[in-house]
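Format notes (please read before filing issues)

Several people have asked whether sequences and structure tokens are stored in separate files. They are not. Every record keeps both together, in the order shown below: the sequence lines, then the token lines. Line labels are part of the format and must not be stripped during preprocessing.
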Amino acid sequence: MAEIQEDIEKWYVLGCLSVHHEEKVRDALRKAGFRSHVPMKYEVKTVRRQEQRTMVPAITGLIFVRATEEALKEYIRHKSRESIYMRKSTFSNKQDYLTVPDYAMERFIEFTNIRQEKITYFKPEELNLKEGEKIRIKGGIYDGYEGTILRFKGKRNKHLVVQIPGVIIAAVELEPELVEPLNNPIEREIRERPSKDVDGDKKYLLELAEWLLENQADKDVPKVEFNLKLYELKRTRARLLKFKGFTPTTEAELALPMYLAAILLDEDVEAYRQRLVKATGKLKDTSKLKAKCQKAMEIKHSCDPSVASEHSSSERLNIKD
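Then the structure lines:
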């Protein structure tokens, strides 16, 4: 069984005793046919009285290499010109060599290669990380990336954190509007105080909902722009959750955008539909608002996969007067 394990390629963690030779070790390993990675960061150095930006290893003496145990030991014993060694695991009384699962290593490399100048690296002993909130990035260079978000002491903004336990931690500062929490209802995702301008917010929510519905299938609309408007929709909706209209008109004006927002977020659609039905029923038959509300309810009905639609998606999504 041990012989089988030695034939399997894994990501091993190497230490380097030669100061500032991490890149040389990495390049030599690559020339020898191994995949190798050294986390790098930007640093400003003064050379001949002039400041120069340069790339340097993020953590002194740290190198990753993908190889079989036997091949790596053979390289270290007979081919390496540098003083390197295979680090032992701290999780098994140092009986085993420290390895990193493929998925974790590939994820770490992808994350740290996107925008190296914005990433801060830490050794595990430098931070006492607690389990943070699971989030997804919506828009920007990390669009679609999922990870853990934390706030560091002395730092104003939150950071997306990716780590290889016991080895290295990488953190990048995030723009708050691009963060979307995972596996939480909207009321928990977006913490907003009740609206101080209900009329203004319900009009804004309707504008956002109409724009998003009209453009959700348009490939020419930048994803960043769409995601930012969707985030604004969530925030505005959260500010209006506790409000109801005092008259049939004001209730319908509020129920309509709340229903459209529910469609976009795919949350509590039927509950908001019933609210809109009730509000619409109290409006006069000659009311333009009633016609608009009825058209919105038809949109949802025709968008239902179980109901055949006679209209194109652009026609179904057009609810403006």
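For reference, the curators noted about this record: The longest strand covers residues 40-47. Residues 184-189, 300-318 have pLDDT under 50 and may be disordered.
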